[in-house]
Amino acid sequence: MYIERVPNRNSPPAVLLRESFREDGKVRKRTLANLSKLPDEVVDGLRILLKGGVALKSFGDAFEILRSRPHGHVAAVLGTARALGLERLLDRRPSRMRSLALAMIAARVLDPRSKLATARGLTSETQADTLGEELGCGDVAAEELYAAMDWLLRRQRRIERTLAAKHVADGSLVLCDLTSVYFEGSKCPLAKRGYSRDGRRGKLQIVFALLCDSEGCPVAAEVFRGNTADPGSVAAQAEKLAGRFSLSRVVLVGDRGLLTKARIREDLAPAGLRWITALRAPAIRKLVSSGDLQLSLFDEQDLAEITAPKLYPGERLVVCRNPLLAAERARKREALLAATEDKLDLVVRATTRENRPLRGTDNIAVRADRALRSHKVGKHFTTTVTEDRFSYERDEEKIAAEAALDGIYVIRTNVSDEEIAAEDAVRAYKNLSRVERAFRSFKGVDLKVRPVHHRLEKRVRAHVFLCMLAYYVEWHMRRALAPLLFDDDDPDAAEADRTSPVEPARRSKAARAKAGRKRTPDGLPVHSFQSLLGDLATLTRNRVRPAVPGAMTADILARPTPLQHKALRLLGVRP
Q1: 342, 354, 417: which is closest to 388 by C-alpha?
Q2: What is the distance between the alpha carbons of residues 55 and 43, in angstroms, rounded to a whole number?
Q3: Which among 101-105, 325-329, 491-495, 519-523 has the top mean pLDDT?
């Protein structure tokens, strides 16, 4: 049976239900019913039924969505990693270990979680997105991820050597800094008590150092015991650069706490490495007292190069004065002095109160010492302690001597002026802020390297190395996506607006306008890196089946929004 529409001159066509049959070898047809009075949607439903389909109440019933999974952010991260050659960097030959290692790196950027939660997110039955499917992981156990971490750690030296060869050349700058992250537990030999940069007193911690190129792209990471002081890591970094990477002409840039005089003499000089660092405040005061540094230099300029043959033979010293930094240090000093005076006043009142006054030289001295140490400006006060009295006053001479050096810092280097000008040496030292930015990504909402829960030393090292590779992917993604992020996508223009490298860094005019309007020049919303990943995650992959018995399923990608389309295009990724 079938439905046929028959023209009817000037009247509406006749809708007839007909049947075909054979008679005497010929095909004939007969009309079974006249359907002309039925609504069109009923006629269309009958036509579908006669063709073996299923009548539906609405278009939405034509298909059944079996599963919908976030996919756009996976395509962005995994596509970037593959474009960077990360798969072949891990191992030339495909293997399950390589797929799991790449999955952990991508998952660290997408949604950093424990290894158990990551394993559940990759397994087909409980997957949170399409990452496991894209890499063909199938069912994943947490033990497999631990095995993949061990597999990755055995390749760390080769991977770092390849990254160094790709991003660092002889004669270029290498940025180095280290930080600490707190540790949960007590069984790891690397976990020790030390100076916590996380402000977690009483917690065990580990320390790790990061080597980056001049732009802040990471090339190597090294884990140390939690009680390792900053200078204690220099020997390992020197050996890595000069020995493992065979880079004898690079310039190592480290802060004043890292590259001390002893470490320069004992670690960098034997390796033949050149360096750029800065002087500590006591060393600057010594320069002033020796007459090598004249504060009158800054009457008309904010940067000057000097030499101090007796104190620093064969080295260059670039002296800078930042008036904004000077004002901020003066403000902070005054606030700390006032806060300390408030606590000292409590001691004074304790000795003069009528009810149970504070008595005894030792008792008063202990309370006063506690107040003086609270804000670390006790050196600027003189005190008088007797058996029943306490008094104090500011040491104006010491305060004035310290204030005279407000805003002054000294860059120290052994690189000749033919190779790097004084202004460029200052810029190189300030580039350490790019390593600090990396540490913020490591510790913040991006990669969540802390707290460390692993117990085995090799797993802790693998965990930090895995986070470094994840930041390597994130760093390249941020550069490509900068037009859509609050990040400055025109840093060269921002640098050109500065008349001196001593001036505070400023964002470019385009970046300030973008942040003010919260819109890009073409009208798209501006995002943070994490919120942009969240937006890309709404680009879903949907498993769809037509509402027809025996129909096959198909994966259909949602249509990208203009923002998603541009983000993927900037990354060079096809979803």
Answers
A1: 354
A2: 11
A3: 101-105
Q: Could you identify the residue written with the tokens 């916590």?
A: 196
CA angle 376, 379, 384 (to 5 degrees): 115
Q: How far is residue 546 CA from its own chain's centroid? A: 43
Query: Distance between CA 210 and CA 228 in Å, rounded?
Result: 15
The answer to the question of residue 33 being in a domain is yes
Rounded to two decimals, what is the model's pTM? 0.85
Between CA 395 and CA 275 the distance in angstroms is: 38
> Among 359, 377, 403, which residue terminates a domain?
403
Do 226 and 193 form a contact (C-beta atoms < 8 A)? yes
CA 570, CA 127: separation in Å to the nearest integer?
27
Torsion angles phi and psi, residue 394, rounded to 5: -70, 145
Please state the domain count of the chain.
2
Number of other CB atoms surrounding residue 185 within 10 Å: 12
CA–CA separation, 261 vs 474, rounded Å? 35
d(CA 194, CA 304): 38
- Token pair in block for residue 204: 């065990």
Query: What's the whole-number average pLDDT of the chain?
Result: 91
Q: How many CB atoms lie within 10 A of CB 183?
A: 25
Question: Which of 349, 375, 403 is at the close of a domain?
Answer: 403
At residue 97, what is the residue type? M
d(CA 44, CA 29): 21
Q: Which stretch of DSSP H or E encloses residue 115?
A: helix 115-122
The verdict on residue 328 lying in a domain is: yes
Quote the CA–CA distance of 339 and 115 in Å, as a whole number.
Answer: 46
Q: Is residue 302 part of a domain?
A: no
**Residue 235 located in a structural domain:** no
> DSSP H helical segments within 242-376, as ranges?
261-263, 269-271, 281-290, 323-352, 361-373
Please give the residue range of the domain that contains residue 47.
2-55
Q: What is the pLDDT of residue 59?
A: 52
Tens-digit pLDDT profile for residues 520-560: 999 999 999 999 999 999 999 998 887 766 667 888 899 99
Element (H, E) at 367: helix 361-373
Contact 486, 528 (CB under 8 A): yes
